[in-house]
Amino acid sequence: MRTGCALAALVFATPALAQTATPADLADLVRAQAAEIAALKARLDKLEAGTTLAAAQPAPAPIVVAQGNGQPPIIITPPYAPQLVPPGPAERNVARVQEATDNLAGLTTEWGAGLPVFHSADGEFTYKPRGRIITDVSATRGSRYRGRNLTTTGMRALRFGLEGGVGTHFFYQFESDFSENEVDVVTAFMGWRNTIGAMDYDVRIGHLFNDRSFEGSTGSDSTPFLERTVVATAIIPQRAFYGLGVMPRLFWKSGHASLTLTGDRIDGNQAVSDSRTVLGRAHWNPIKNDDTVLHLGAWGFDESLSSAARTLTRSTVIGGRFNGALRVATGPILGGTGTTGYGVEIGGYRGPVWVMGEAGRRNARLDNGRPDFVTHAWSVSGGWFVTGDLPPYNPRLGSFGQPKVLKSIFEGGPGAIELTARYERLDHDGIATAGDGWAGTIGLNWYLNSFIRTQFNVIQWNTDGRTGDYLGKDDGQTVSARVSVTF
Prior knowledge:
Porin_O/P; mainly beta
């Protein structure tokens, strides 16, 4: 409104000024009017286009923050790549939060992946509902054991939650999962974010998802295969993917680092001390441009087990999550005192093709002077987006996220089509009853848009069982399919 009044005043004043003004004054006046008109047109175009911060918009350019006193400006890189759906309130950095507030333009919602982000009129409060529905079906054939040749269905995830923020720095997130017909609190934390020089950081406190390995740090709604690699599922603390504690994270232009200190998962047992887990991870992108990324990563953890968590028995998925008979099992392992694990990651993408290799080792310490129980795992996987979309690699977190599909089927396009392949191997040492196994997988992913996708995997698996009902070498094929929606 002030801009319009100023423009009207200039227009009505022009005839009077023209009688006394010099040619130079008139030229200055014309330039001022042109600038006002250009500003009004830009604002009108923005409002007519419905610009908020929707997923269809390109990622913002780096934000330049002037420091003054002769100091060079700080350049803050937006916390996502152009091929990713912009993050929700709990995953933004300070610059992104400020950008969202500055671009409200009187609007109180922004549309991203399926559900809106709500803003208060002054931009102080932000809120977004979250949801995840992942449905699987699988069929196994070829095993020499009839009990393994099963056809099953299951809900990989059935989640509902919320995330939001207050002001620039405070944020929170909460999610519960109902996939086993029980209420299971998964992510539940509060956090604080800010900047340090040219870097930014956040600190999260609550029930936290591990930052450990490439696919172990990728959400179940973003993994390129129906199940994570054996590196992510076997080289893991005994408390598994979640723990209650604190996680500070530091981000710079080409990578990030995190350190996590947690106790157990959320439980009702306060009769004994929790286990203690310290976990760290860092990744670095020595090459990162518009269509090429090189990813290097390393991580490790050390876990001291409580007196109530001394059983180390494990059964690792090798041919599909929803066939409980198809596992690489260790047999009973009692008397554990702690675990130590570590791993490395190397991969990246060029154009629509990506490759990722992971390897890890876990030493489980046993009481009474017994030797460690050791787990080795490694995997090599890759994919090709035949529709030309870039892989949904998140350079801020060093993991996969939700893609921003170039041509959604709801807009007349083909969606994004990806072909995938993987080989993985799992071996155990130190326990006579622990088995080994490997699997080769080929897959097809079809992203209908940025938050709906279907997946199809064909797995050739091989196990060498040394305990339980399925002894000796066995092999077969598992065909699995998934439909998922993530909001």
